[in-house]
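A further point concerns the way the authors explain their paired sequence and structure data. Nothing conveys this as quickly as seeing an actual entry. An entry of this sort, consisting of the sequence and the corresponding backbone structure tokens, reads as follows:
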Amino acid sequence: MPATTLELTIGALSERTGVTVSALRFYEAEGLIASTRTAGGQRRFHREMLRRVSFIRVAQTVGLSLEEVRTALASLPEGRTPDEKDWATLSASWRPRLDQQIAMMERLRDRLERCIGCGCLSLKVCAMFNPEDVAALRGPGARFVIDEPAKRS
């Protein structure tokens, strides 16, 4: 395909982005990307959809939901594809969330060999790591991973 081709088939878009054809159809049905149709009814995607699909994939990779992606894309004027300035603005707004996710992953990595505060003490099994089931007071789930470590004075 020549570099100057402005429209891509769904197969070409899939090949270039690494996103399956079925996922591209889903993104289109969800209004995240758009295509036109040929006289024969075949989808054609404007070349800018390469960047838009890549944006969607990166956003999903960092943990954003499709609803968050939709909101981000809807914030752009006239539904255009994010440019460099848009990307800087959107990615900056995601930074606090990413920092939280990174911190949680680091806590998980650092605690893999220890108790994660899963709440098993309700079964009176974990007295060594969670005496008197104090983790239950912090809420459900793996509290020793989810919670920030206690600050030392």
In short: The radius of gyration is 23 Å. The mean pLDDT is 80. The CA atoms of residues 108 and 145 lie 6 Å apart. The chain is about 45% helix and 5% strand.
